[in-house]
Amino acid sequence: AIGYKACMMGYKVMYFNINKLFSKLKMAKADGSYIKEINKIEKQDLIILDDFGLQSLDNFKRQDLMEIIEDRHGKKSTIIASQLPVESWHEVIAEQTIADAILDRIVHNALRIELKGESMRKKKIEKQPIE
Predict the structure, then answer these.
(1) What is the pTM assigned to this prediction?
(2) Where are the domains of the chain?
(3) 3-state SS string for the chain
(4) Which residues form the IstB-like ATP-binding domain (predicted)?
(5) Span 28-47, average pLDDT
(6) Is pLDDT larger for residue 113 or for residue 120?
(7) 47-89 confidence digits (pLDDT tens)
(8) Side-chain half-sphere CA neighbours of 59 within 13 A
């Protein structure tokens, strides 16, 4: 809803499932379009990274995330959606020094919204009549 509203207000917005983004960036490195892809992400007013933390980050993913966050820090907005509490993100990033650098940039000046209760997807499924 936040991304949709930003689009309606004229902001440039991109949404990514974070694991698909990492796959896309890996392919971009292989075909030589990595810088172009990173620049495209950097130019967006808002990026939304969904499903952070479903998989641990390897060294390549850590470096990609660090580059994205570093490029945007203090300049553009980033939304990170995760099932995990922020306190667990160090474990996902896995390498202490890079985790500290990434999380310092993410958490500094961040607005955190923690949702409680049942999943909205689960509620929708429960409300649908069985035919």
Answers:
(1) 0.83
(2) 2-127
(3) CHHHHHHHCCCCEEEEEHHHHHHHHHHHHHHCCHHHHHHHHHHCCEEEEEEECCCCCCHHHHHHHHHHHHHHCCCCEEEEEECCCHHHHHHHHCCHHHHHHHHHHHHCCCCCCCCCCCCHHHHHHHHCCCC
(4) 1-125
(5) 97
(6) 113
(7) 999 999 999 999 999 999 999 999 999 899 999 999 888 888 9
(8) 0
The letter for the amino acid at 22 is F
Q: What is the edge-to-edge ordering of all strands in the sheet holding 46-52?
A: 13-17, 46-52, 77-82
Altogether, the residues listed in the chain come to a count of 131
Domain 2-127 has CATH 2.30.42.60: no
